[in-house]
Specification:
The protein has helices at residues 11-19, 28-62, 69-103, 124-132, 134-161, 171-211, 216-227, 230-251, 287-298, 307-316, 328-343; strands at residues 257-260, 265-270, 279-285, 303-305, 350-352. The protein is α/β, with parallel strands linked by helices and 376 residues long. It folds into two domains: 23-211, no CATH class; 239-361, name from scop. Strands 3-2-1-4-5 form a five-stranded mixed beta sheet, sandwiched between helices. It is elongated, with a radius of gyration of 43 Å. The relative contact order is 0.09.
Length: 376
């Protein structure tokens, strides 16, 4: 039994769908919006052009019987410029509305995969579904609805003009009424068409959302492809931790002292006067702490039992980092003790801490430590 597609499409799935042309879009929104623009812009443009044409005709009649070619060309150029300006303005507005309607339904995209030849496009079963499937039924219902709306609005406009026909009303009044009714008809039809186009867009968006949904298995497979297999990532992470732990253990012999707790925590420190404060070369708890103690014992690194100091260092440091300034004094006492025994020729062994104070200044966590800036 096939798994149901219940999951929302991922970002990668949406990108692939856009390349295949699967974007919710209706071609009718731009057409109806253009018709509404024409219905709104045509009256002022026609009024302007009729005024200019009347002025041009009056100038033609005032020229008399002797018309020069230059005067005729000037009048012709003026008339052509008026017509050209009207066409350019109206055409530019129509183009902007069409482009804006297209961009508002998913933006600009190139459906590169949809133009590639594919044998699936020749599948007769798929073609039969396109002709007689739900999509075809919806398109037929839209056509019937549009025809009904346009017919109803046109019938209302014609009914309003019927009383004017019969010769009792001056022809100028009839023409003016016809003009107003036609423009009103265009605007009403355009508004109704925009409403239907928005409804069509909602239906297309819902259908496209169902088509691009994914099964839980597909989401998991895509996650493995984009982010990697969790098992493989876990194995790589384990190897990285093991390599880091091995490097840390290799640095234990170079430590000056290992502070222990006495069995749960171990922190190995190395002091180099040229590099500043003591640094942590190894740290750990549990089995890692046990390995640090064993390796320190093998290479003659002294172990100092100091429960509060070992805990404070383990909590506030990471490997390779300097110890916090709050613990300088406590660590200095331990290092002085270790160095004095080394000078006396005694190496290794486990010792009690030379510190007498039980309390320590609280040290911040590694990520919250403030950097000390020397005053200049």
């Amino acid at each position: 039994m096939s798994e149901e597609k219940t999951e929302k499409p991922t970002v990668r799935k949406r990108k692939e769908s856009r390349k295949e042309g699967q974007v919710p879009r209706t071609q009718e929104l731009g057409g109806w919006a253009t018709l509404l623009l024409v219905g709104l812009a045509l009256p002022p443009l026609l009024t302007r052009e009729l005024t200019a044409l009347s002025q041009l005709m009056r100038e033609c009649f005032t020229l008399g019987g002797h018309v020069e070619v230059a005067d005729a060309m000037v009048l012709l150029g003026r008339g052509a410029s008026h017509v050209m300006i009207t066409l350019v303005v109206l055409g530019s507005a129509v183009m902007l509305v069409g482009v804006g309607a297209a961009l508002s339904q998913g933006g600009f995209f190139l459906a590169t995969k949809s133009v590639k030849p594919s044998l699936k496009k020749l599948n007769p079963i798929q073609g039969f579904k396109r002709v007689f499937g739900p999509q075809a039924l919806w398109e037929g219902a839209k056509m019937l609805l549009k025809s009904s709306v346009v017919g109803f609005v046109a019938y209302g406009a014609v009914s309003a003009l019927m009383p004017l026909i019969g010769g009792l009303v001056p022809i100028t009044a009839v023409l003016e009424a016809v003009r107003d009714e036609v423009l009103s008809l265009v605007r009403t039809v355009a508004v109704a068409g925009i409403v239907m186009a928005l409804a069509d867009y909602a239906v297309v968006r819902r259908r496209m959302g169902k088509q691009t949904r994914m099964t839980k298995h597909e989401v998991k497979q895509e996650g493995k492809q984009t982010e990697g297999d969790p098992l493989l990532k876990g194995a790589i992470r384990s190897r990285q931790l093991a390599a880091s732990r091995n490097r840390m253990m290799a640095d234990v012999p170079s430590a000056d002292v290992v502070l222990v707790n006495p069995t749960h925590v171990a922190v190995a420190l190395r002091y180099d006067a040229e590099r500043g404060a003591p640094r942590v070369v190894a740290r750990g708890s549990g089995l890692v702490a046990q390995r640090i103690r064993e390796r320190a014992t093998e290479h003659g690194v002294p172990l100092v039992r100091d429960v509060p100091l070992a805990r404070a260092l383990h909590r506030s440091t990471v490997v390779g980092q300097e110890i916090p300034a709050e613990l300088y004094a406590a660590v200095a006492q331990v290092l002085a003790f270790v160095i004095s025994r080394r000078s006396a020729g005694v190496r290794g062994g486990e010792h009690r801490s030379p510190r007498q104070e039980a309390d320590l200044v609280a040290a911040p966590a590694p990520g919250r430590r403030r950097r000390v800036v020397a005053a200049g």
